[in-house]
Design goal:
alpha/beta, Nucleotidyltransferase, domain 5, four-stranded mixed β-sheet, 6 helices, 25% strand, globular
């Protein structure tokens, strides 16, 4: 199994290339919030080259479909759809929550994505990495109550509920590698949005 994975859902940029039998190769750029469209293709080329992997040798292309940055998510999905179309390969959807859950060991995890203005996207996972609290857009107070139910709050970025610093690349890789092979046709890729964008809200 060979694959390329792309995560443009946050302020960072993460690209993973994996060739069966070899170690995964990561490209991680921590502060790429407004540069995803500029930096992504170079990052893909660099990562594939280091992995000694040709894009057509990939069995599928994985992408983080959200929640997170509305623009970043669209860039990632569009890129993977293009790669799938060019190479005739399927896609694999991974959520930001999945990547966070797999960044931790066997603990119950409350995966948190900062949505700004004291709000969060949250999802609870059991030790088996199955969803126990469905994804929700919620206040900090509600997220804190969920964490108090025995879940370890975990985020890629520092928040008032946790220190951040989750293993972005490692979690994404394990979510793809260990989390199943439920590939789909690229045309079925859709973004995971738990609320309307600021632009949509502003049109009310």
């Amino acid at each position: 199994m060979n694959f390329l994975g792309i995560d443009t859902s946050g302020k960072y940029l993460s690209v993973i290339a994996f060739r069966e039998g070899a170690d995964p190769v990561f490209c991680f750029r921590p502060d790429c919030a407004v540069q995803h469209s500029v930096d992504l293709m170079d990052a893909i080329g660099e990562t594939l080259s280091r992995a000694l992997l040709n894009v057509r040798e990939c069995d599928f292309f994985a992408v983080v479909t959200g929640p997170g940055s509305f623009t970043g998510i669209r860039i990632g999905i569009s890129t993977v759809k293009g790669l799938c179309a060019a190479c005739g390969k399927p896609a694999l959807c991974v959520t930001s929550f999945d990547a966070l859950a797999y960044a931790e060991g066997k603990k119950q995890v409350l995966a948190l994505v900062d949505a700004g203005h004291g709000m969060y996207y949250a999802c609870g996972y059991g030790e088996d990495k199955r969803v126990k609290i469905p994804p929700v857009f919620c206040s900090e107070e509600r997220a804190a109550r969920m964490a108090a139910e025995g879940f370890c709050p975990l985020s890629f970025a520092r928040t008032s509920l946790c220190g951040g610093g989750a293993d972005v690349c490692g979690g994404f890789f394990r979510a793809v590698h260990e989390g199943g092979r439920d590939v789909i046709p690229a045309r079925e890729l859709t973004a995971v949005y738990l609320r309307k964008s600021s632009a949509e809200e502003g049109r009310k």
